[in-house]
Amino acid sequence: MHDYYYFTKEELLRAPKIPLIVMEDNQTVFQAMAKEMAEEIKRNNDRGKSTVYICPVGPVGQYPYFVERVNEERISLKNVWFINMDEYLTDDKEWIPKEHRLSFRGFMERSVYTRIRPELVMPEQQRIFPDPKNPAYIQETIQRLGGVDTCFGGIGINGHVAFNEAREDISPEAFLQLHTRVLEISKETRAVNSIGDLNGALDDMPNYCITIGMNEIFHAKKIRLGCFRDWHRSVVRHAAYGEKTAHFPVSLLQDHPDINIRLTEFVANLPK
User: Which residue spans traverse the membrane (predicted)?
Assistant: First the structure.
């Protein structure tokens, strides 16, 4: 038994190894994430600096608020790079078609880029996805741009960030050195994602993905994670109080100098 899984809200907030910010509900978490995205871009624009983000497709609730702020406040994204975390692959290790209902590339196109005013949106070459044909391009691009300002994301059921799946055969130090790569998706992740995205159609879930590495994530200047699902109750407690191990990858971010997890009151409180 792991005592931390059963911590009350008060116990959870007492001494977490990753700073926790409890917010009212999902909407509040997403609005805060969108605000941070927009405000950092505005500051960098004022200084004549570029902005480089690692971005998820999951969580996605921040994007409508971000798009709204960009359009209403006329925030230029011309000097902004979005490096998406990951994408599903076919069994032949190719990107699934952009038209596929699970495609992260398709989601970003439909729900973000085409909804931003054309005069504000970044050029297509600044909308980057890891490519199974050239995985090194992510690391090369980050180095060329001078690093990542902020990595936004969530946490998976087994502690994965992006698709950096849990490992039992590797040390924490070695796991943190992993770069962008193709890998097989774990059965736990496939099951949870099939419930959320395909009404439980597990047989139709892809078996492979390409993911940005823990190395790229850890070396972002800031990391901001959002947790709001029912099973995030245990995930947050493990992230905040578990030992650093590749068995639960987000735990390896405990030593990052500027990280926090935004979670809802629902996640902070356990059922009575």
Answer: none
Residue 1 pLDDT grade (very low, low, confident, very high; cuts 50, 70, 90): confident
- Asked whether the beta carbons of 210 and 131 are under 8 A apart, the reply is yes
In one-letter notation, the amino acid at residue 171 is S
Show Cβ contacts of residue 100 under 8 Å, excluding neighbours closer than 6 positions.
88, 106
Residue 167 pLDDT exceeds 90: yes
Tell me what percent of the chain is helix, strand and coil, each rounded to the nearest 5: 40, 15, 45
Take residue 127 and report the two structure tokens written for it.
């909308």
- In sequence order, the β-bridge partners of residue 128 are 83
Please state the pTM of the whole predicted model: 0.97
Domain hosting residue 114, numbered range: 3-265
Question: Is residue 271 a part of any domain in this protein?
Answer: no
Distance separating alpha carbons of residues 53 and 222, to the nearest angstrom: 10
3-state secondary structure at position 14:
coil
Encode 239-261: b = buried (16+ Cβ within 10 Å), e = exposed: bbbbebbbbbbbbbbbebeebbb
77 — pLDDT class (breaks 50, 70, 90)? very high
Total domain count, the chain: 1
Domain assignment of residue 120, yes or no: yes
What is the pLDDT, as a whole number, of residue 165?
Answer: 97
